[in-house]
Amino acid sequence: MKENHEITMDTFLDGLWKENPVFVMLLGMCPVLAVTNTTMNAIAMGLATTFVLLSSSLLVSLLRHAIPKQVRIASYIVIIATFVTIVDYLIQAISLELYNALGAFIQLIVVNCMILGRAESYASKTRPMKAMANALGMGGGFTIALLCLGTVREVLGNGTLLGYSLFGDSFQPWVVMVLPPGGFFVLGSWLLLFAWLRQHNERRREKKLLETEAANGN
């Protein structure tokens, strides 16, 4: 039981860091660049994607033995589209302003390669609990990535955070940050940071391994 819990936790944490869908696997780039001009948009898109990913992974895992292999991709798309429709109506009912800000990218969650990839490569081959842990990790990692971009772009591009002014009237916004080029610039900066962190951790592990081997040799 403890071993299964550890496996589930490791699966969850992998999506947050080792297999982060944006900073490591570079998946779902369209919404990452398009809707992260504000923090609120980033949070909303991240939570919507996480809900669809979690719900579709659970259902695919439960039906993995019932779906014929010949129609599995079509079945996964129908399942994903059903939950995307639910999210679309929910956001529209909660806030029309947010719904209009996200635009067509809510419906485009259907073709997000991260979600279909999780359904095909993971949820369809594993138990519901493990599939849900993986989906939560990937969804959480995707939301964190969107939040990283959205926060930087809103703070620098508008001088605000979640709509609240941070620097007063004297601040001169970097307008480019809320435009498409700003999205590429911020994404590139985060990718450089995460690449440096991964290399730094790898060097530390190699150094520790060499020290361990040297100690054992002595």
Condensed summary:
70% of the residues lie in helices and 2% in strands. The chain is mainly α and 218 residues long. The chain has a two-stranded antiparallel sheet.
Produce the secondary structure layout:
Layout: H1 2-16, H2 29-34, H3 39-62, H4 72-94, H5 96-102, H6 113-121, H7 128-158, E1 160-161, E2 164-165, H8 180-217
Antiparallel strand pairs: 1-2
Overview features:
two-stranded antiparallel ribbon, mainly alpha, flat, 218 residues
Task: Describe the protein in words.
With 218 residues, the protein is mainly alpha-helical. The protein has one domain. Helices cover 70% and strands 2% of the residues. It has helices at 2-16, 29-34, 39-62, 72-94, 96-102, 113-121, 128-158, 180-217, and strands spanning 160-161, 164-165. Strands 1-2 form a two-stranded antiparallel sheet. The radius of gyration is 20 Å and the shape is flat.
The helix-and-strand class reads mainly alpha
Percent helix, as a range, is over 70%
Shape: flat
Largest sheet: 2 strands, antiparallel
* Order of adjacent strands in the largest pleated sheet: 1-2
Put simply, the count of helices is: 8
Tally of DSSP β-strands: 2
Low-pLDDT residue intervals, each spanning 5 or more residues: none
Radius of gyration: 20 Å
Instruction: Estimate what percentage of residues fall within beta strands.
Output: under 5%
What gap, in angstroms, lies between the N and C termini? 39 Å
Give the total of domains.
1
Helix and strand succession? HHHHHHHEEH
- How confident overall, as mean pLDDT? 87
Oligomer: single chain
